[in-house]
Amino acid sequence: MKSLKILKLLLTFYLSILVTTIALFLIGLLAYHFMGVEFLPVIIWFKVITLGIIGYYISNYKKREVYCYQNSGLPKTFLWVCTFSFDLSLFVALLILMKS
């Protein structure tokens, strides 16, 4: 039951940055389509850096939202690691599937 609550909180948090991650995915997909597989490391680094910028923005400008998740039992580090790991994994998987 507790793991279901954690998953629900993580999904809710991820949905708050979903529009931005979709925009970044589309930019990465276009770059991958036009530049090819040789450009993939640059695209992945672009994604990692922009996720860091998003994390910085949310940590500074949406502190109350992050505190809400912390009060629900999710440490800030756990929240960010899970969100960024999921997003980056999804990004790479979708790029691979789109090019196949």
What do these coordinates show?
This protein has five helices and no strands. The radius of gyration is 15 Å and the shape is elongated. It is 88% helix and 0% strand. The chain is an all-alpha fold.
* Cα Rg: 15 Å
Strand content: under 5%
Mean pLDDT: 86
Q: How many individual helices?
A: 5
Order of helices and strands: HHHHH
Q: Biggest sheet, open or closed, and with what strands and sense?
A: none
Using the alpha-carbon principal axes, give the shape: elongated
Q: Are there runs of 5+ residues with pLDDT below 50, and where?
A: none
Helical content band: over 70%
Number of strands: 0
Structural class: mainly alpha
Distance between the termini: 38 Å
Which short descriptors sum up this protein?
mainly alpha; 5 helices; elongated; single chain; 100 residues
In short:
The protein is mainly alpha-helical. It has five helices and no strands.
